[in-house]
Give the backbone structure.
Amino acid sequence: MTNPYLEPVASIWARIAGIVMLAAAAALTAVLGYGLYDFFAHAGAGQALNSSTLIYALVLTALCGMCWQAGYRLVFRRTGRASSLFSRPAWFAIGAGLIVITALMAAVILKARRPTLVDVQVILFLGGVGAWCVVLAFRRRAGGTRPAPSAGADDRQRPDR
């Protein structure tokens, strides 16, 4: 019996998911574009750039980039050598972005008040996910780039025999 979660997704469903991801990416790009236009066009209206706006823009930018790349790779079957939805530079960018967002959140929270348990949990989670994405960026593919074990590696006898 095989694990259904490890089976590849049918090609048509992968393409449908890719199209949905590309549509979401286009919508996020439109929202970001409108937000930038509104920010620069109405700068004299008293709109201030604060930490919440900055973090919101960073998160939207990260989501937009992830949707564009995952959608493109699904629609056009471009998973690359690592068979991943994201390339190594994308994994690194996602991880670095999450680490930067975590650092910004921690700085804002520590400056404003004493962190609560939920604050600590969110900071540790986002920082951990960011660090894991950076690890994935530098991780080698399991089958192709590692040297094969030598032929007699498993045939060694233990000294007590």
Remarks:
- The radius of gyration is 22 Å.
